[in-house]
Design goal:
The chain is built from 18 helices and 14 strands. The chain is of the alpha/beta class. β7 and β8 form a beta hairpin. The two termini are 35 Å apart.
Length: 508
């Protein structure tokens, strides 16, 4: 589904823009293995910088941008050949964030993907599975972040059940411990908030079951260290140890009075809420023991990045799954895909579409453009766009999914580009061009004939297109000429000029 397997660079990097901390991990790829060569972590508290209207406050943006400038300097110094940067809960919730994302991209030198909670959970599980001894047992993985908590059951390297709970240590601190005071009543209120989030999915997790439970990322790691130091005779994260620790924390009365090993001034303000989340999960799920995992989402990002560069791209699996689920006519999809890519090859230089992702998205849109037919024929392109925008599609960051939905939703009938206004550059412009190419490919295969198309030449200059087809083929397909004439009117309405011709006659 692409131009061929790409070479994995020697140095790769992953950047996790979490709600509480920003993390960067750099690895060297050698003989099929990833060797971590550098890690950076800075406490940014992005979620704490969201005001009541959901906008990022200036101070939070400045902290984030200064951090990203430092990360960018390190990436350039280490000559990272491939980098993935993802934003999680805080950036999912943030309103009017385009200005910040553009500055963040400039500071870091790489675009930022905002991923869904489900995708975050998938990457977390991948990071834990790839850095733990391989096992065929089912594993439960818990990751407590600043803005959300992910719980996953998986087997081997594949997640089976994923959930992202809308409760994290930063948000819970703001709600239950805003002034730093800690009491038994406030702690119980925090646990209740977690219980309410967990309740709708609790039975599904109990029913599926697991053999081992792991906790990843900073909150669980710090809790593990505290338990090990305070209870050396039983240095494990268990229900009894977490209960004892909660009594000690509530007795302190205030975050400033927490006298706990390994809890520094950065971690202290959110420690009680992180403890409340883990305690409630352990008790409600009936977990005997939580092991502290070596890996987390950033390691999952690295392994996912290697997969994208080889033959294990999770996005390809998601597209194939959508094809099967919505009973796509595979032969028709393959015909449209081949023609769309052939047109792209003739237009990419003039339209600046050399980015390999442009071809991938066009391919996927061609393969999925008819999924809406499984719902209804009328307005099926809109049904398809809705499915693609709102479905859980492992491997896809939110913006890629939005671009894919935009292409499918605009592949036929009257055309408007309103849905593209919220896309980040350069995809707000690229999507227009890809939509035009997809529309032409669909139009040329409207008859669903298994016969291959003749040689078709496409020349583009700015927003003008010249399509040239063999004279005999045009004569034998009068309905296609009618469709092209209608398409010319559709494209004119959005500022594109389409001409089509044969070697003997011209129509314009």
């Amino acid at each position: 589904m692409s131009r061929g397997r790409r070479v994995v660079p020697d140095v790769l990097a992953a950047v996790d823009l979490g709600s509480n901390s920003f993390h960067m991990v750099v690895a060297r790829h050698s003989h099929g293995q990833l060797l971590i060569v550098d890690r950076l972590r800075e406490m940014v508290r992005l979620a704490a910088g969201l005001d009541d209207s959901g906008r990022l406050e200036d101070a939070a943006m400045e902290r984030a941008l200064r951090c990203l400038e430092r990360f960018g300097q390190r990436l350039r110094a280490m000559h990272a050949g491939s980098v993935r940067v993802v934003g999680t809960n805080a950036l999912r919730r943030a309103k009017r964030k385009r200005w910040f994302l553009e500055r963040a991209r400039a500071a870091l030198g790489h675009p930022i993907e905002i991923i869904s909670g489900q995708e975050e959970a998938r990457l977390i599980y991948s990071g834990v599975a790839h850095t733990s001894p391989f096992s065929t047992d089912k594993r439960l993985v818990i990751d407590i972040g600043g803005g959300s908590t992910e719980i996953v059951i998986g087997q081997g390297f594949e997640p089976v059940l994923l959930e992202s709970l809308s409760v994290g240590c930063v948000g819970l601190t703001t709600t239950c411990f805003p002034d730093g005071r800690i009491s038994a009543k406030r702690f119980e209120r925090a646990r209740t908030a977690v219980r309410l989030e967990l309740e709708p999915v609790l039975e599904a997790y109990r029913k599926l079951g697991w053999q081992e439970a792991f906790g990843s990322s900073g909150t669980v790691r710090i809790l593990g260290e505290v338990v090990r130091r305070l209870y050396p005779d039983s240095p494990r994260i268990t229900l009894d140890n977490l209960r004892s620790l909660s009594e000690r924390v509530t007795a302190a009365g205030h975050v400033d009075d927490l006298e706990l090993p390994d809890v520094d001034t950065d971690r202290a303000p959110v420690f009680a809420s992180g403890l409340a989340i883990l305690l409630e999960l352990v008790e409600s799920l009936g977990i005997d023991r939580v092991r502290v995992a070596e890996g987390a989402m950033r390691e999952g990002l690295l392994y996912d990045l290697v997969g994208r560069l080889t033959d294990e791209d999770a996005r390809v699996r998601s597209v194939r799954a959508m094809e099967k689920r919505y009973h796509v006519d595979e032969q028709q999809a393959e015909r449209v895909e081949a023609t769309a890519v052939a047109l792209l090859a003739q237009a990419e230089a003039a339209w600046g579409l050399e980015d390999p992702l442009a071809e991938l998205i066009l391919r996927w849109a061609a393969r999925l453009h008819e999924i809406g037919l499984d719902i209804a024929h009328s307005k099926y392109h809109r049904h398809g766009a809705y499915l693609l925008e709102h479905a859980d599609m492992p491997g896809f960051p939110r913006e890629e999914q939005q671009v894919l939905a935009a292409l499918v939703g605009a592949h036929r009938r009257q055309l408007a580009f309103d849905a593209l206004e919220d896309l980040m550059p350069p995809w707000d412009r690229h999507a227009e061009s890809l939509i035009v190419l997809l529309r032409l490919a669909v139009l040329l295969h409207r008859g669903r004939s298994p016969q291959p198309l003749p040689d078709i030449r496409l020349e583009v200059r700015g927003r003008s297109l010249q399509l040239t087809l063999p004279q005999r083929w045009m004569r034998d397909h009068p309905l296609t000429l009618e469709d092209l004439d209608q398409e010319r009117a559709y494209l004119k309405a959005v500022g594109f000029r389409l001409q089509f011709s044969s070697s003997a006659t011209r129509s314009s």
